[in-house]
Amino acid sequence: MKKVIAGVLAVMMTAAAFAGCGASNTGSSATEAQSSGTASNGAVDASMFGEEDNIKLKVWGPDKSVDLLKQQCDAFIALYPEKKITIDVVAQGENDAGTQLLNDASTAADVFGIPSDQINKLVNAKVLQEVAFADDVKANNSQGCVEAATIDGTLYAYPETADNGYYLVYDKSVIKEGDEAKFETILEDCKTAGKKFIMSAGDGFYACMFTFTGGCKTDGLEADGATQKFTDYKEDEVIATMQAFSKLFHDYSGTFQSLEVSNISSGFASGTCGAGIDGTWDATANESALGDNYGAAKLPTINVNGEDKQIISMFGYKYIGVNAASKFPRTAQILANYLTGEECQTQRADKLGWGPSNTKVAESDTVKNSATITAILAQAENSVPQADLADQFWDPMGNLGNQLIAEKTDPSDAAYMKQLLKDTLSNIQDV
Amino acid sequence: MKYIDYKQLNPFQKFAYNFTNFFKKLPGRVAAFFKAIGRFFVRLFTGIGKGVANYVTRFIKGDWTVKLSYVVFGFGNMMKGQIIKGLLFLATEVAYIYFMISFGFVYLSKFGTLGTVETQQVKDGPFTKTVFGDNSMLILLYSVLTIVVTLVVFFIYIANTKSAYKLQQLKSEGKHIMNFKEEMKDFLDGKFHITMLSLPVLLIAIFTILPMIFMVLIAFTNYDKQHMPPGTLFTWVGLDNFASLVDITSGAKKGVTFLELTKWTVVWAIFATFTNYILGMIVALMINKKGIKLKSLWRTLFVITIAVPQFVSLLLMNQMLQTNGAINILLSELTGQEVAIQFLNSTPLMARVTVIIINCWVGIPYTILSASGVLMNIPADLYESARIDGAGPVKQFTKITLPYMLFVTGPALITQFVGNINNFNVIYLLTGGGPSTENFYQAGYTDILVTWLFKLTMNQQDYGLAAAIGILVFIVCATLSLITFNMSKSAKDEEAFS
Amino acid sequence: MIKSYKARRVIANTLIYIILAVLGIIWISPLVYMVLHSFRAEGLATVPYLIPREYSFQNYIDLFVNTGTLNFPRWYLNTFIVACCARVISTLSVLMVSYAFSRLRFKSRKKFINVGMILGMFPGFMTMIAIYYLLKAMGLSQTLVALVICYSAGAGLGFQISKGFFDTIPRALDEAATVDGATKNQIFWKIILPMSKPIIVYTILTSFIGPWTDFILCKLIMGDNRDNYTVAIGLQLMTSLEFKSDYFKQFLAGSVLVAVPITLLFLKLQNYYVEGVTAGGVKG
Lengths: 431, 498, 284
Fold this sequence. Notes:
The structure holds three protein chains of three kinds.
Chain A: H1 2-20, H2 26-35, E1 55-61, H3 66-79, E2 85-91, H4 94-103, E3 111-115, H5 119-124, H6 134-140, H7 143-148, E4 150-151, E5 154-155, E6 158-171, H8 183-193, E7 196-199, H9 204-207, H10 209-212, E8 218-221, E9 228-230, H11 235-251, E10 256-258, H12 262-270, E11 273-279, H13 283-290, E12 294-297, E13 301-304, E14 307-310, E15 313-322, H14 329-339, H15 342-352, H16 359-362, H17 365-369, H18 371-380, E16 383-385, H19 394-405, H20 414-429
Parallel strand pairs in A: 1-2, 1-3, 7-10, 7-11, 15-16
Antiparallel strand pairs in A: 3-15, 4-5, 6-11, 6-12, 6-15, 8-9, 13-14
Chain B: H1 3-8, H2 11-24, H3 26-61, H4 64-69, H5 75-79, H6 83-108, E1 120-124, E2 127-131, H7 136-172, H8 180-186, H9 192-218, H10 240-246, H11 253-288, H12 295-307, H13 310-320, H14 326-335, H15 348-377, H16 380-388, H17 393-421, H18 424-430, H19 449-458, H20 463-487, H21 489-492
Antiparallel strand pairs in B: 1-2
Helix pairs in contact in B: 2-17, 3-7, 3-20, 6-7, 7-9, 9-20, 10-20, 11-15, 11-17, 12-15, 13-18, 15-17, 17-20, 19-20
Chain C: H1 2-38, H2 58-65, H3 72-103, H4 109-119, H5 125-137, H6 144-153, H7 160-168, H8 171-179, H9 184-195, H10 197-213, H11 217-222, H12 231-238, H13 244-283
C-alpha cells in the first residue's frame, strides 16, 4: 500500500517538476526544489538525484538511535526503487562526529548527527554543506532551532531534535505536588526528606543559567566571528540574581551538591537524591530508577528580592549535517532532509523520547504524553539557544558557578559578585 | 688526588671520594655542555666544507666511469664488476625520479605558500557542491616527507660517488674487489651495526622524526580554527606564536597563562619527583631492612598497582575524590558526621596538593622496584670494610647505604623530572586541569604545559600555538637530559666492566 | 647492652610492620574497591556507601553478552593481538638498537645515542595528526596493522635501560668469540641474547602493557571503526556522558578483566623486571 502511494506521489511530482521547468537550468531549479519539495514523509522526485546512481552513503548517529536510524534508512531506500542505494549506518557519538570530521572529512560519514555548538567550527572549516531544502526546513521547524544553525543568512544543517538541554527531574515522593515550581521549595523538600539536590554547577553548560536568569544572555558573535556578544542587561539585576543563587546554595549546603550529572540517576537508584537538573541523555536511566515516582518539569523559579524569576537555561539542538566532501551530495541532502522530516521525528519522539524540532510533531499526542519531552519543550521557551558561542565560553562560566557555590564566597557581598561578573564576561570576550 | 693515592684508599673511602667529586664537577659539566654545542656547530660547518671539497676532488681525479656516476647512479660500480650493487644504486635514482614526478614535486612546489587555491562552494541547482582547493596541512606534511626522502637519496648519491671512486683506487692498486655476496656477508660482521640499526631507524624516521619536523614547522604557521584545512588555507607567520607566548603585558592572556603554567609545571615536577623518590626510597629501605619478613608480599602489595592501566586507576581515583566519593564517605563514617571535602575543585592549593599526593600512589611503586634492586646490589665489601673500621648499623646506613643509593639512582632523578614535566596522565585524568579560573586562557589551575597543549589541539584546534609550546618544552627537557646523561657514569665509563 | 639493642630492634621492626601494613592497605584499597564494585548488583554509577550490598556476576555477563552496542570481547581480542604483535617488534628493535649502541663501535655512535635519547621527549599530541595521514597514505588507516606499527615504531628509542644492561656484560666474551672466528651476528644471537633474559623479559613486559592503556592515538586512528577499537577506548567510551549511567559498573568489570592478565604476568615476571631495571638503571 505504502509503495503504491509513494509511486503515485512520485508520478505526480515528476509531472509537477516538468510543468515547473522544461529545460532545467540553474536559475529555475531552485524553484524545482521547493515545488517538487517534500511530502510529509520527506519524499522527493527521483530526478532530484541528478546523475547519481549506485549510491553508497555512510550515516553516523549516536548509539541509542542506531537501530531506529537503520529502519529509517531502509524506508528511505524503499522510496526510490529505481535507484540503487546502499546506506551504512555507523554508531558515532555526536561530539566525536565533529572532531572526526575536522580530522579527516574524506573518511567521515556523508550524513551525520551533530549538536548545535559545533556548527560554527565546521562551517569555518568548510566541511559542512549548506542545506538544499532550506525553505521547507524553515517552514516546518521551530524558529529557535533554525536560527541556531543559520550563519550569515545560510542554513547549514537539518534540525533533528530540540532537546539538547536540561530540565528538572525529581522524585515525586520527595517533592510535593506544586513544589517543583520554585527552587526554594524544592530544596526545602529535599532537606526535609534528608535527600540531595544535585546539579553540575561548575560546568559552564549549566552555570550559565546564573547570569542568563538575571538577564545577561548571549546574543551570538560579533562580526569578527570570535568575540561573544551579550544582550543589554541591568547589572544590579544580574548581581542580585547571582546573590540569590549563591545564598540558596549556602543556606542549603549539604542538601545542595554540585556533582557530575550521572550522579543524579545513581542517587535516585540508591535513594539519596531527591531532585536534580539533568538532560535527555539520562532520561531513561532516571525514569527506570524512579519508576512511578519519576517527575520532570521545566526549571523552577528563583526568588530574587521578592520576585519569582523563571530560570533561563542554555538550550541546544541537534542537527543532521551533510559532509561537504560527500561523493553523493544530492542523495546525502535528500536523505538528511528525509531523516529530519515529520515522519522520522515522530518515530524518534515515540521510540527514543527525543524532543522534536518539527512544529507539527511537537503538538502531537506522543509528545504531550511524555513528561520528559513536555518538560524539555517547556524549558526551551525559557532558554538561550546554544549556538555561536566563543570557544572560551565554557570555562569562565564554569568558574563563575564554582565561585557561587564556594564555601568562602559571601552571598551578601555585592561588590565581589560585581567583580566576578565583570571578570567572567571579559574573559569570555578577550582572547 | 693522584691515581696512586686513590688506589690506596679502602673501598669505603674510594666511594666517598667519588661521591663528593660527582657534585664538585657538576657546574663544570654544565659549562662543558654548552661548549660542546658550540663545537658541534664548528665541526658541522667544517665537515660540510670538507665534504664539498672531497666531492669535487673525486670528480676531477675519477676516470670516466666515476664521472658518469655523478649523473647515473651506480655506473662506476657496474663497470667495475659490482653489478648488483650498481643496479641497486640505479634503482634508487629511478625510484626517486618517479617519486618526485608523481608525488613529491606537486607538494614541494607549494611549500613556500602552503597552497593558494581556496575551497569553492559551487551552486548546483538547489544543491551546493564543494570543490576543495589546496590542503595546507597535507602540503606541509608531504613536503616534509619529500624533503626527508630527498636527503636520504642525497646521502645514497654521495655514497655512490664515493664507492665508484674507491673502486677505481682499489683497481689501480690491484686489490680485490668484493662481490655482492661478500659485501652481504660483511653486513653480518664488520657492518653489523647497519644491519641492526636500519629497521629501527627507518621506523623511527617515519613515525617519530618526520612527524616531529612537521610539528616544528607548524609552530611557524597560523594553523588554528580560523585556518582549518581542508576548507581554509593556513600559511607561514614567522615567530608570531612564540611572540604571543612571551607577551605578558596586561590583558595578553596567552602569555600570562604560559608564564603561570610554566611556574606550576616546574613546581609540580620538583614535588612529584622528590616526593616519589624520597618516600619510595624510605619504603624500599623498610621492606629490605634485615629481619623484616614477607619481603615479597610487601613488595607485591605496592607493585600490583603498576599493572592496572593508569587511565583506569586515575579515573577511579577521580571518582573516589568527589564530594560524594569513597574518601568522603569513609571520612564520614570514621568521624560520624557528614564530610564533603572538595578535593579537586575548590581552591587551587587543595587541588594541587591532592594531585601531588595521588601521584605518590602512582609513582612510589616504581621507585620501590628500582630501589630494591639497587639495595640488593650494594657490594658486600663496602660493608665489610666498614665493619672492620668499627662502624655500627646506624653508621653503616648513613655512610654506605644512603650515599650509595643516592649516588646510583641520582642521575635517574633528572630522567624522572623530565618525565614529570611531560606527565600527562595524572593531571589530565585526575583533574582535567581544574579547578577552572577566569585568569587563564583555556587552562585551569592544575594544568601543566603538556595538558594545556593537549587542550589547545584537541578542543581548540590551536595547532600553531600548541606547537610553539611543544618546542619550548622540548628544548628544556632535551637540554636537561643531555647534560645529565653526558655527565653521568654510563657515558664516561661505558667500558668499565670490560 | 645487647639485650636493649635487641629490644630496640624488635620495637623498630614492629613499627616498620605497622607502617608497611598501613601503607599496603592504602595502596591496595582502590583496587579492592574496583574489584568489589565490579560485582555490585544494585545501584547505578555510584552508591553512597563503601561496601556493595549485593553481589553478582551480572556486570561481567553483560560485558560478554550485550555486545550489540559495545563489543567488549571483540575489543579485548583486538588489544591482545595488537599487544602480542607490537611486543615482538618492539622487543626486537630495542634489543637491536641497544646491542648496536653498546657492543659495536662505529662512526657517530655517540651522536646517534644523544639524538635517540632526546627524540622521545617531544610532546606527541601534535604529531598524531601527521602520523594519521602518513598511515592513510600507506593505506593503513583504521586497521590493526596501523596500531601495531604505531606502538612499536618508536620502541627503538627506549634503548637506554637495555644498553645499560649490555654494557655490564664483559667485553672479553666478545673478544674470545671473535678469536674463535664468530661474526658479530653470531655473537649477538648465540652469546649476548642467551645472557640477557632479564632485560628481554623487562622489554617484553613494558611493550606489552602499552596497547592496553592508550586511548588517544588509537581513537584518532580508528575513527568510527568500532570493530577495531581496543579495550582502552572501549572503557573510555563507557565513562562518556552518553553511557556512564548505564555502563559504569561494566566499566569496572572491564577494568578488572584488563588488569588481571597484566597483574598476573607482572607478578610472575617481577623478579626479571627488577633485575632488568636495576642492571640497566644503575648505569643508565
